[in-house]
């Protein structure tokens, strides 16, 4: 597994372990982290395990996407196998 994004880029605001997958999910400031994002969607939610991310307009919205990382294709498959997602 590669190093977490905060060790490579910085800009980490918060990191939590997703109870549905067991993987870490990070919330990053896209500008501080250097993660390429649109200026209108500067907050980035990242699956630390798979490296997938999604950008958001607000930090609150980004934080709300940390609990259920259905935006990460690999996590989505894991959650489907566990019967969490349809």
Can you offer a commentary on this structure?
The protein has 86 residues and is of the alpha+beta class. The chain has one domain (5-80). The protein has four helices and four strands. The chain has helices spanning 5-8, 30-33, 59-64, 73-81; strands spanning 12-17, 24-29, 43-47, 53-56. The protein has a four-stranded antiparallel β-sheet. β3 and β4 form a beta hairpin. The longest helix has 9 residues, at 73-81. It is elongated. The mean pLDDT is 89.
What structural keywords apply?
27% helix; single chain; elongated; alpha+beta; four-stranded antiparallel β-sheet; 86 residues; 4 helices
Number of strands: 4
Radius of gyration, taken over Cα atoms and rounded to an integer in Å: 12 Å
For the residues shown, what is the average pLDDT? 89
User: What kind of sheet is the major sheet?
Assistant: 4 strands, antiparallel
Total helices: the number is 4
Strand order of the largest sheet: 1-2-3-4
**Helix share, percent:** 25-40%
Element string (H = helix, E = strand): HEEHEEHH
Overall outline: elongated
Low-confidence stretches: none
Number of domains: 1
Beta-strand content bin = 15-25%
Task: Supply the helix-strand structural class.
Answer: alpha+beta
Question: How far from one another are the termini?
Answer: 29 Å
């Amino acid at each position: 597994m590669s190093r977490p994004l905060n060790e490579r880029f910085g800009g980490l605001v918060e990191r939590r372990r997703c109870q549905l997958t067991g993987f870490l999910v990070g919330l990053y400031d896209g500008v501080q982290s250097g993660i390429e994002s649109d200026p209108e969607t500067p907050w980035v939610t990242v699956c630390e395990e798979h490296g997938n991310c999604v950008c958001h307009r607000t930090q609150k919205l980004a934080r709300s996407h940390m609990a259920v990382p259905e935006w990460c294709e690999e996590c989505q498959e894991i959650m489907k196998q566990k019967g969490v997602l349809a």
